[in-house]
Structure formats: structure tokens, C-alpha cells
Amino acid sequence: MPWFQHTADQIPRADIEALLERTVAEARERLGLARLRRVLLLPPDITRAHAGVGWMTEYLYHHLTAAGAEVHVIPTLGQHVPHTVADNEWMFGSIPQDRIHAHDWKGGVTHVGTVPAGFVREATGGLIDWEIPIDLNTMTVTQPWDLIVNIGHVVPHEVLGFANHNKNYFIGLGGKRTLGASHLASATYGIENNLGNLLTPVRRCFNYAEDEFLGDLPDVYIQVVMNYDPAGKLVHTGVFVGDDLDTYLAAARLSREQNITVFEQPVRKIVAVMQADEFRATWVANKAVYRTRMAMADGGELLVIAPGVERFGEQPEVDALIRRYGYLSKDEVLRLYSDNPDMQDIPHGTAHLVHGSSEGRFTIRYAPGRLSRQEIESVGYAYLDLDEALARYDPDLLRDGWNTLPDGEEIYFISTPSAGLWSTRERLYDR
């Protein structure tokens, strides 16, 4: 069961700060420590900055250091581009740069165990038969810590059903083999079979790995849930603190209740905005695709306004893979995979080709900041000039939800696609 939880229509910052202090006090008591000497904070990376996890990390850092602890921070990047100094300052404020460490998903991991192929096969109903090696951030699993604090935002997610909890370890701090095996398993199982489900096959595999390989870590999860207030602003509605699976499930159930918008009929036109200060590659900006695909009508159009997007992949080899193959259906990718070593070398990138595809059902149109029409169209997307998109679909004038433009065009507008999931009732419940 959770150590404690707090829910409300809106939880003020001061209340969250008090809950953060309570987390530290309870952790010290449960671990039987008079004081905490070395503490590791594991927040998400900059693509989750809108959830307030940056200022929460900063508050914990100063609260712990004031009590005499040596505190370090590792943003759970996965294979995303490491933060710049400016990124860290924007997200984590006054935390010293030498206490913020970049995760190295290739050279900075240690093997801690393997999820057996038999368990993966059972979890996926026989669909997938490969093992998942578990390689995790070396600093996290080999250095002595009095306490490890995982901080994150629980929201529907394309691989794990809902984000956060042990995703911080196995995706955020995972190595190349772990990322590849788990992402390809998720894509093969089907993105629309994962979104909004409490326990997906890959989540079950990660729960196994946590129980088997991380049981000695002195850790706790701080998980927040957010929702829109009547004025259309994202606010915190839940804080869940604990060290077990039930803590995740409690948070995910609230997210399922608050963060999924259900339509009776498919939507013909969705316009989504991906903020420039968080989303710089289609790898992360495609959350707009993941979170709306179950709502889209066959033959409809999703327009992604992404002024910060300047590349496809977060890493050069992933960017090259996307440019070579483009976004493809699951059947096309699985057919190509066995004959192409570059796909086999980075299977998490191969999985992304599936996740970012509409499977031929609807048009994905991008209005990027720094990718050309030729580049966008070469990967299978349609293109719209950014200035033209902003002039017609001004985010400052549109409201979240249904909008009718002066010429009569009806659109559904989403200002923060990464904060939810949109689906027809049929696609959500008849799976």
C-alpha cells in the first residue's frame, strides 16, 4: 500500500512541498536512519517539465542538503539527448551543475539481471519470445545510497500503459539492450493495446525485474497526477508516495479517471501543439501521435504544430534510421527487421517507426520549426509551414476541446498532448 496519498481538485505548491518533506521524514523513519547522508534524486527529463517535477526536485535537493545530506540528481533521460546547462537551469533552478549527472545509455550501465524469455512469452500471450536484459545506470546501482527518490508524472503512456514508477529505472536509466528489447516488444504487442492499460506486458516484465534485481535499493516513488482546472490550466490533483506496486496502481487509476478523454465518434481533425522548450525531435513530439491515434477517424488529419522540432531522432543513429525508412506500419517494420542489421542494432529506434505511424489510417501533418518540407515528407508525413499553421491555428486563441474557425472548419484542439490520452469509446474499451 502507499505510504500516503493526497488528492484534491487542485493541490497548491505549498501543500506539495509539505508532502515532499513528509516523504523524507517517513523514509528516514522506515529505513531506521538518524540522518540521510547520501541521497539520489531521479526526476524525469525536460520533456516532462510541464508537470512541475523540476521545482519539486529542486525543493527536495535544498531540503535534504540543509539537513546535511550529499545529494545527487540523474535526470532519467533514457536515450534522449542529455540536458545542456541551460536546460538544467531552466528545469532544476539552483541545483549546482556538478550535482546533476547525465545518463549514458551506452557506456554508463551495469548488467543486473535478465527477464527470461519464458516470462516475456507468458506476459505477451505467446506473441514475443525474446529475453529482456536489464542494464541500468551504473551510478544508481553500484554506489551506496541511503535513499533513492523517484519523482514523476503518471499519465497514459504508449509502452507501459501509464508512465512513471519503475519506468524511471528501466527506460529512464536503462541501457541500449534494455531499451531495445522492451520497446520492440511493446511495438510488436501493439501500441493501442498498451495505451491506458494499468498493467501492460512490458510493465509486467519491469515489475518482475524490480522484484528480482532491485529489491535491495532503498527507494521511494513520488508520483503526481495532473488535470485541467475550469480555466483550462494543468494543475496537480494527486500525490502518491510509496515503495510498492500499489502506489503506482493508485496513481494510475486516478490518471485513468482524469486524463483520458472519450469520444463517441472518431474525430476528423485534431490540432496539437508540442511546446518548443520541451520537444525538439519527432521522437518526443510524436507523443501527439501516440496520445490521439485512438481518437482519429479513418481518413482524418492530425496536425502537429512543433516549433522546437529540428530533427527526427534523439540520437544520430536513430535519426538516420528514421530518415532511411520513414514511419511505417507494424507489418512493414516486422517484415524488414529480420533482413536489416541497422534495424536490429537499435530495436528501440525500429519500434519508434511503428509508434509514429498512423498505420495508413489518417494523415499526420507536421508544422516543424527547423525541418524542411522535403525532410518531413521523406519520412511519410505531410507538411505545413509553421507560420501558416500558427496564423490559422493560433494556440493563444484556441481553447482546449472543440473549436469552429471563422470559415466553418471544426477542429479539436489539444494544447498539451503529453498530459493525456484521447480515444473513441470503442477503441478504448473493446480491446
Largest sheet: 6 strands, mixed
- Proper CATH architecture of the largest domain: 3-Layer(aba) Sandwich
Provide the helix percentage: 25-40%
Strands ordered across the widest β-sheet: 1-10-9-6-2-3
CATH class of the largest domain reads Alpha Beta
Total beta strand runs: 18
**Might you state the CATH topology name of the largest domain?**
Rossmann fold
* Cα-based radius of gyration, to the nearest Å: 21 Å
Q: How many H/I helical runs?
A: 19
Class of secondary structure makeup: alpha/beta
Mean pLDDT: 96
Flag low-confidence runs.
none
Q: What is the CATH H-level superfamily of the largest domain?
A: LarA, N-terminal domain
**Structural domains: how many:** 2
Distance between the termini: 29 Å
Apparent shape: globular
Q: Strand content of the residues, in percent?
A: 15-25%
Tell me what the structure shows:
The protein is of the alpha/beta class. It has two domains: 4-258, LarA, N-terminal domain (Rossmann fold), CATH 3.40.50; 262-429, 2-enoyl-CoA Hydratase, Chain A, domain 1 (Alpha-Beta Complex), CATH 3.90.226.30. The chain is 38% helix and 23% strand. The protein has 19 helices and 18 strands. The protein has helices at 13-31, 53-66, 85-92, 117-123, 138-142, 167-170, 176-189, 191-194, 201-213, 245-258, 282-285, 287-292, 316-325, 330-337, 341-345, 347-355, 373-378, 386-392, 425-429, and strands at 4-7, 38-42, 70-73, 109-115, 132-137, 147-153, 156-157, 161-162, 219-228, 234-242, 260-263, 267-273, 296-306, 363-368, 382-383, 401-404, 410-414, 421-424. A six-stranded mixed sheet has the order 1-10-9-6-2-3, with helices on both faces. The protein has a six-stranded mixed sheet with strand order 15-14-13-12-17-16. Helix 1 (13-31) crosses helix 2 (53-66), helix 7 (176-189) packs parallel to helix 16 and helix 13 (316-325) packs across helix 16. The longest helix is centred in the first third of the chain and has 19 residues, at 13-31. The radius of gyration is 21 Å and the shape is globular. The mean pLDDT is 96.
